Amino acid sequence: MTKAELVEKIYESVGFSKRESADIVDAVFELMKEAMGEGEKIKISGFGNFMVRSKRERIGRNPHTREAITITARKVVTFKASQLLKKAVNSGQVQKTTRARKAKPAAE
Fold first, then answer.
1. What is the CATH number of the domain that holds 77?
2. Residue 55's closest CA among 82, 79, 37, 78?
3. Same domain assignment for residues 54 and 67
4. 3-class SS of residue 37
5. Are residues 47 and 78 in the same domain?
6. What confidence tens digit (pLDDT) does each residue in 18-52 have?
7. What sign results for the dihedral spanned by CA atoms 17, 18, 20, 25?
8. Structural domain total, the chain
């Protein structure tokens, strides 16, 4: 699923305009980036955990030349799925939990 498809699904199921849906998706992703940039763990109940891990410098090999190279230290983002998500994926029965929002009355 792409970001555009996610915006479309929010538009269809919640009732926000496409612009509002896109702004919400952008805001959520931006908040997640900021939190992980500060080293925070993000826990989404029933979905999973996003966390930043530090990897130390290590020696690797170029697969074409077999030459030893140094892989620099870096931070990586990891995701660990919750048991509920694993169960839903493995059973093939993902429940729809989004509730439709009542449409705003039209301005007269």
1. 4.10.520.10
2. 78
3. yes
4. helix
5. yes
6. 999 999 999 999 999 999 999 999 999 999 999 99
7. positive
8. 2
